[in-house]
């Protein structure tokens, strides 16, 4: 059975955690960076993440697996393939051409959805994706993140009454 410790080991082997001076997407400065894009392009890491998430979901009660673009789409795809649950992809914003959809995939009113993300800091972008699902009739049952930077996401999800499950926290890694 795949374990959290194994995930930590392979993330370390692949040098996903970097130290130095970095500017995060939020604009905040940090002395470390979690390069999850590197991680999710490695098949063994992606497979391990999908296995860990699948161990924690009840496939009989989940209708869709969702991931916000860009980093979570490979994770959501891997979970979808392993669980045989259909996939949703949440755009950052509606595209201005074609169908102009914010959510790609078939979301039906009342669908139970598990949402995945690669890294959270405060959880803001993941909550935005969750709200898009809710506004379109989906019911978010749980949110998973591969790595929680432990900078407020847990509290934000509590405020939103959403079950939030990090596979690992940054303190477990260090």
Give a structural overview.
- This protein has 174 residues and is α/β, with parallel strands linked by helices.
- It has one domain (4-173): Rossmann fold (3-Layer(aba) Sandwich).
- It is built from 7 helices and 8 strands; from the N terminus they run H-E-E-H-H-E-H-E-E-E-H-E-H-E-H.
- The chain has helices at residues 4-13, 36-39, 43-55, 72-83, 124-135, 153-159, 170-173; strands spanning 17-23, 29-34, 64-68, 87-90, 103-104, 112-120, 139-148, 164-169.
- The strands form 2 sheets. Strands 5-4-3-6-7-8 form a 6-stranded mixed beta sheet, sandwiched between helices. A two-stranded antiparallel sheet has the order 1-2.
- Strand 7, helix 6 and strand 8 (164-169) form a beta-alpha-beta unit.
- Helix 3 crosses helix 4 (72-83).
- The longest helix is centred in the first third of the chain and has 13 residues, at 43-55.
- The chain is globular and about 45 Å long.
- The protein starts with a helix and ends with a helix.
- The mean pLDDT is 90.
Name the overall outline: globular
How confident overall, as mean pLDDT? 90
How widely separated are the two ends? 23 Å
> Rg from C-alpha positions?
16 Å
Number of domains: 1
Count the E strands: 8
The CATH architecture designation is: 3-Layer(aba) Sandwich
- What does the main sheet amount to? 6 strands, mixed
């Amino acid at each position: 059975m795949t374990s959290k410790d194994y995930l930590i080991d392979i993330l370390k082997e692949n040098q996903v955690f970097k130290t130095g001076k970095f500017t995060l997407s939020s604009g905040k400065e940090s002395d470390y960076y979690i390069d999850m894009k590197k991680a999710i392009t490695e098949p063994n890491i992606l497979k391990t993440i999908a296995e860990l998430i699948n161990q924690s979901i009840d496939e009989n009660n989940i209708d869709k697996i969702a991931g916000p673009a860009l980093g979570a789409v490979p994770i959501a795809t891997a979970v979808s393939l392993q669980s045989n649950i259909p996939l949703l992809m949440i755009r950052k914003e509606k595209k201005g051409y074609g169908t102009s959809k914010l959510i790609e995939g078939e979301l039906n009113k009342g669908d139970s959805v598990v949402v995945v993300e690669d890294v959270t800091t405060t959880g803001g972008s993941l909550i935005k994706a969750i709200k898009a699902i809710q506004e379109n009739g989906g019911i978010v049952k749980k949110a998973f993140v591969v790595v929680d930077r432990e900078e407020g996401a847990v509290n934000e999800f509590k405020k939103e009454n959403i079950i939030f499950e990090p596979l690992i926290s940054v303190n477990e890694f260090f």
